[in-house]
Design goal:
The protein is α+β, with helices and mostly antiparallel strands and 388 residues long. The protein has 3 domains: 12-52; 56-155, no CATH class; 166-383, MetI-like fold, CATH 1.10.3720. 54% of the residues lie in helices and 12% in strands. The protein has 16 helices and 8 strands. It has helices at 12-37, 41-46, 67-70, 84-87, 162-169, 178-208, 214-224, 230-242, 249-273, 277-285, 290-301, 303-318, 322-327, 338-348, 353-374, 378-383, and strands at residues 56-63, 72-74, 77-83, 97-102, 116-118, 124-127, 132-137, 148-155. The strands form 2 sheets. The protein has a 5-stranded antiparallel sheet with strand order 2-3-7-6-5. α9 (249-273) runs antiparallel to α12 (303-318). It starts with 11 loop residues before the first helix and ends in a 5-residue tail after the last helix.
Length: 388
């Protein structure tokens, strides 16, 4: 009785729980990347993204104001007064509650708020919890750059769009992803449309047209699904140079088309073969040609399968690095795609996690949008034709 159609299995709770766990595991790093892309470098280094909404303890290195311009005589000594969070350009506008501070990197928590540090030769400094300080000494001592102060402070949560401004609108060739974004779009859109166009015609012929060797051709296409693309990279690149294509967008489009066609033809052929035969036969009886049947009947009915392959092909090409490095990347960087640009950021900005997080999220934003916009067709397109 447990196998009767329409009756729920006793293990349905396990299936639902598994789906929930998989969704959470998928969303966890994505949300973390999004949150980190809006945080500052100090906050990323000081706490995890899950603490982004709460105050965090950070070790900051700040400087007092320039003594040559801000010192003033007071009671026989010279004094420099101010606030560390407003005088230091790196922390300008930041508000924090200092719990410990020091004047040497060897002991960054030597003093508490309100304590006075004896810096020798009559020079001293007092720092309050809100960052206010009083630095006293002789004119010879109060000169040059401002005194460096190491503080341990509880900083409030802070979010900024400066990371996106730097990544998307910066003119820097090492930080900006804008050029790489348009290069990736230039590669991905044609490399998605071209194989779909060829595969749709081939799938219709293999599904509804009788010609000698059709079965062998179908078996050959299925066999191509298991061929690693790495085996064809060097021979195909040599072929491109021999016929004058070389490294460029055209060669990359053709490479992605060739590598994507076997799966595209297989999926679309299975879907088209499962369409009602009566529709095709009635159209032929009414005098419709194969081209008319294909364009006016097959293509509209095959939209779920076309959409499902489009998702796969788009995601594969967008996230591709190997094919782009072999067939596209040049020494000038004019055709650098986003995956290659992120690799460059890892080399030049390995410590700037805020830049890496922002660049990575920009890279996955478009595939996420494409997936969620077309995911309702994904299951329908994949399962169609699998059951007769």
């Amino acid at each position: 009785m447990d196998n009767i159609a329409g009756q729920k299995s006793g293990l349905s709770w396990a299936v639902n729980l598994s789906v929930i766990i998989l969704v959470v595991l998928w969303l966890f790093p994505t949300v973390g990347l999004l949150v980190s892309s809006f945080r500052t470098a100090d906050q990323i280094a000081g706490s995890g993204w899950w603490k982004a909404l709460f105050p965090s303890e950070q070790n900051l290195t700040l400087r007092a104001a320039d003594p040559d311009e801000n010192r003033k005589a007071q009671g026989g000594v010279y004094v420099v007064e101010g606030n560390l969070f407003t005088d230091d350009a790196a922390a300008n506008g930041t508000t924090a509650n200092i719990s410990a501070w020091g004047t040497s990197s060897r002991d960054v928590a030597a003093y508490g708020p309100g304590d006075t540090a004896d810096m020798g030769d009559g020079q001293s400094m007092t720092v309050e919890a809100n960052g206010d300080y009083v630095w006293t000494g002789t004119p010879d001592q109060l000169s040059g750059r401002g005194q460096r102060v190491f503080v341990t402070a509880n900083t409030p949560p802070e979010f900024t769009t400066a990371n996106y401004d730097k990544v998307l609108r910066s003119g820097s060739g090492t930080d900006s992803m804008a050029k790489a974004f348009f290069n990736t779009m230039t590669v991905t859109i044609p490399a998605t449309i071209i194989p779909i166009a060829f595969a749709a015609f081939a799938a219709y012929a293999l599904a509804w047209m009788d010609f000698p060797g059709r079965g062998i051709l179908i078996a050959f296409i299925v066999a191509l699904l298991v061929v690693p693309l790495q085996l064809a990279l060097i021979p195909l690149l040599k072929l491109h140079f021999e016929i004058g294509i070389g490294k460029g967008y055209l060669g990359t489009w053709l490479a992605h088309t060739g590598f994507g066609l076997p799966l595209a033809i297989y999926l679309l052929r299975n879907y088209m073969a499962g369409l009602p035969r009566d529709i095709i036969e009635n159209a032929k009886v009414d005098g419709a040609t194969d081209f008319q049947i294909f364009t006016k009947i097959i293509l509209p009915l095959s939209f779920p399968a076309l959409a499902s392959f489009s998702i796969f092909q788009f995601l594969w090409v967008w996230n591709d690095l190997l094919v782009a490095k072999v067939f596209l990347i040049d020494a000038t960087g004019e055709t650098t795609v986003m995956t290659q640009q992120i690799v460059e950021l890892l080399g030049t900005r390995g410590g700037n996690w805020e830049i890496l997080a922002t660049a990575a999220f920009v890279s996955i934003a478009v595939p996420l949008a494409v997936f969620f916009a077309m995911q309702r067709y994904l299951v329908r397109g994949l399962l169609a034709g699998s059951v007769k």
